[in-house]
Amino acid sequence: MFKNSTGYYFILPSVIILGFTSVYPALYSFILSFYNWNWGTQQDFVGLSNYFFLLGDKEFWIVIKNTFFFALCACSIEVTLGILIAIYIDRIKVGAGIIRSLLLIPLMISGIVVSLMSKMMLNKLFGVIPYLMKQIGFSSNFYGTKDTAMWTLIGVDTWWQTAFVFIIILAGLQSIPKEPIEAARIDGVSEWGIIKHIRLPMIRSLIFLVIIFRSIDTLKIFDLVWGATGGGPGLSTEVVQTFAYRTAYGFLQMSKAMTIIVIFSVVVGILTVFYNRMDRKLR
Amino acid sequence: MSLFYKKYRHLISAYIVAGIAVLATILPIIWVGMLSLKSKGQTFTRPPKWLFEPNFKNYVSIWDNELFTNTFINSIIITVIAIILSISIALLAAFALKRYNIRFKGAFMQWLLIAYMLPEFLFIIPMYGIYQTLGFYDAHFGLALMYQVHVLPFSIWMLRSFLDEIPKDIDDAATMDGCNAFGTLYKIYLPLILPGITATAILNAIWIWNELTIALGLTFSNSQPITLGIASFRGYISIDWGGMTSGSIIAIIPMIIFALMAQKHIVKGLTLGSVKG
Q1: Domain membership of residue B138 as a residue range
Q2: Where are the alpha helices (DSSP H) in A46-145?
Q3: What's the whole-model pTM score?
C-alpha cells in the first residue's frame, strides 16, 4: 500500500461529483422539509409542521400502505419464483446458454416500455389477454378497477424483474463446490433434500443480497406505475415516488414533497446500511 | 418408458419449467413486435389476426416523427457524455482504492452504496430549482451529470472488482522501473482491464438508456431521452398504438444487443461487483 497523498487526488473528482449530485440535494431536501415552500412563493421556516401534517394525512398513509404492499408482494413472488426457476434450469446442460439469454431479456427493457406493453396487452377493449380470457369464460379489467390494478402491477413487475433473482441465484448455484453434494447423494439424500439443506444454505448471502436489492428496488418503484396507471384508479396504485412527483410537479408543494421523500429515504437508508452490515458478516 | 422416465425425470421437469418460463418471457415481446408490424386496421380486429402481411409503415412514420427521432438522438448524446464522465472518474477512484491506503475508505464505500440506493426524487426535487439557476435544466450535460449519482458508484464497484483481479506484483515492478502513478494506471492497468471497462460502459449504457425518473424531473423538451419520447405516445386524448409499439421495439433492440455483448459480466453488474459472473 502506498501511503502518500496521491491517492486522495485520484479519489477527489468522484467525491466532488458525488457530493454535488447526492449530498448537496439530499441536505437541501432535508433543510427545506422544515419550510413551507411552494414553488414561486416565499419560504418560511415552519419547523416540524410538514412532518406533523403528513403523519396526520390520510392520503399519505394510503400511499405508504400501497408502497409496502407492492414491495412485499412483488419481492416475495419474484424471489420465490426466481429461486425455483434457477433450481430447475441449473440441471439443464444442453441449451442452458440460450435459455439464460432469453430469460434475461426483460431486465434489459425500460420500465416505461414494460408499462406500455402491459397497457396494450391488457387493454379491456383491444388487448389480447382480456380477449383470450373471454374465450375461456372470464371477464377481466386489469388496470381498470381499484381491486385489480395493484395486483396487475405486481404481476407485471414479476414478469419484468424475476430474471434478476434467477440469474444471480443460478450463478451462485453453479459456483458452489460439488463434493458435499456428491457425498449427500451417495448417502441417499433426495434431490430436494440436497437443495434445501446443502445448496441453498451455501448461497445464503446471495439470497440475502437478492432480497434486499429487490425490496429496495420495489419500494422505489416509479416508472412502471407512472406509465401504467399514474397512481389510479383513485389512489389505489399511488406509491411514494409517484406521490412525491405529483406533489412537487403537479401541485408545486415543494416542501411537502421533500418531507415525503425524506421520511421515505430514512427507511431506504436503514435497509441499505442493514444490508451492508449483514453482508460483511455473511462473507 | 417408465425406466426412461425415472432416469430423466429431473431433466424432463427442468425442460418443462424452462419452456414455460421462456414462453412467458418472450411471447409478450413477440406480440408487441407483431403489433408494430400491423396496419391501423389490423391492430384492433377481434379475433386478433395471428397471420398477416407485415408492413413497416409504423417504423417509417415514427422515423419521420421529429419529436421521436430527437429523443433518440438525445439519448445517444446523453449516454455518451455520462459514460465518458463516469468511466474516467471512476477509473481514478477505483485505482486509488486499490493502490493507496486511504482513510475513510469504508465510509466512502458506504456513501457510494447509499447514494446509489436512495430514491431518485430525494435528489431531483431540489435539483429542479438548482438546475434552473445553474442553467443545467433541460440540458444534455445536466442530465448526464445527475446520472452520475447512480452510474458513478456502479462504475467504481465494477472497475474496482476488475482491478482486484490483477496481481499487485505488476504494479511494484512498474514502480521500480520509475513509472509514476498516472503512468502505472495508463500503461500497466488500463490495457489489462480494458475488457472490464468495456463491460462497465455497456452496463452503464443499458441503465442510462432505460432511465426515466431523473429525466422526467430534469428535462422539458430539448434534451428529453427516448424513454420520455415513448411515453409521449401515451397521450391524454388518444393513444398512438403504432408509435408505442414501434417505439418500444426500437428502444428494446439495441439493449438486447448490448446485453449479449456484456453477457459474461451481467451477474457481476447486477450484484454491484460482489459476485464474479
Answers
A1: 64-270
A2: 49-55, 58-90, 96-104, 111-122, 128-135
A3: 0.90
